Amino acid sequence: MSGADMSGAGMIANLTSTGAALTITWQSGEAVTFPAIWLRDNCRCAACRHPGNGQRLYEITDLPATLNIREVARQSDGGIKIVWAPDTHVTNFSESWLTEHDLSASARKSRKKKPTLWSKSIGNAKPVGDWRQMVADPAAELAFLDAYHAHGFGLIRHSPTVPETVLNIGNHLGFVRVTNYGALFDVMSVPNPNNLAFTPIGLGVHSDNPYRDPTPGVQLLHCLESDAPGGDTLLVDGFNSATILRQEDPAAFDLLTRIPVNFRFRAEDAELNARQTLISVDEDGDIVGVHFNNRSLDWLDAPPEMVEPWFAAYRKLADILHRPEGELIFRLEPGDCVVMQNDRALHGRTEFDPSRGRRHLQGCYVDKDGMDSRARVLRRRLAEQKGVAA
Predict the structure, then answer these.
(1) Cα separation of 128 and 150, whole Å?
(2) DSSP conformation class of 46
(3) Under DSSP, is residue 225 helix (H, G, I), strand (E, B) or coil?
(4) What is the value of pTM for the model shown?
(5) Measured in whole angstroms, how far is the alpha carbon of residue 297 from the centre of its chain?
(6) Alpha-carbon distances, residue 67 vs 16, 90, 92 (angstroms)
(7) What CA–CA distances, in Å, run from 282 to 39, 118, 288, 326?
(8) What is the tens place of the pLDDT at every residue in 41-82?
């Protein structure tokens, strides 16, 4: 099929096939090309996908090596029907599915989640959820999760002030990840600590466990006691800081996305090492991760001529992370739980005095995809409820 005028029929205006690809021109006038192998691999028929779970029932090597579009036709419901060569397999696509999976640059860009960058000025507008409402109302929980995903962190208030509550919150929002610290860990001043987090000294902003592969995706810190003076929570948006670095020193930004550094943690029962870049970007150059931890940085394994430029870039990023205008400082009260994307919301604390009161937090790690899943499930269930009500 070389071309067919589909004016007035839904969103598709025209179809053009070369055999190796299908080009769809939308009513807007924009055209998008779908390669034949991509279309064939996305066939949803019962012979290709399990009807219950949607998983493929074939191997990629089961498809014909000389795959081509033999025929393509518009259906009465607005979708399209493709007959393949050489095996005469039939694939049907709805118009809505094709628009949702448009491969054009503009469509791909529109599907990407855009983070909401923030600084100290976010103040009282920071994402906040009420635990009592979240467990009772899925819409309230989803609203919190949406705000958390946009900002990279969120504060939950009015949760129980009993030990291990952080595990209940973590397993409700996602799946708690067990590490060498256990399922949960206590953040309080202890003698002979294996980590500076277990001392009363102030901590600069950092991401946790960059020496671990993979690095924990989300950290939760739940406040049980906060009588000691000091110990306020300090947060900085790593994505915003990396964006500032890119604007002020593009060469430094590029260097920190390309040259990895070693991170290390050593204790009596663990020795962990990982190698990763301080800034991670995706295929489009968008920032997707920041891993910064001065205490756990081990050594730079790089060509000698790259050492000084790398350290200059590292210093510039550290300088931006320590700018007061980027620091959000607030106090956790008993029952508060701060939830942080570990590769974005860098956290620290001010110094506290354990001789004048207790400060006791419990923390845990949750895999990032677990909270992504939770939001999708809630959104789907709420949509289904609205559909039934309608």
Answers:
(1) 13
(2) T
(3) strand
(4) 0.90
(5) 23
(6) 17, 13, 16
(7) 24, 21, 6, 24
(8) 999 999 999 999 999 999 999 999 999 999 999 999 999 999
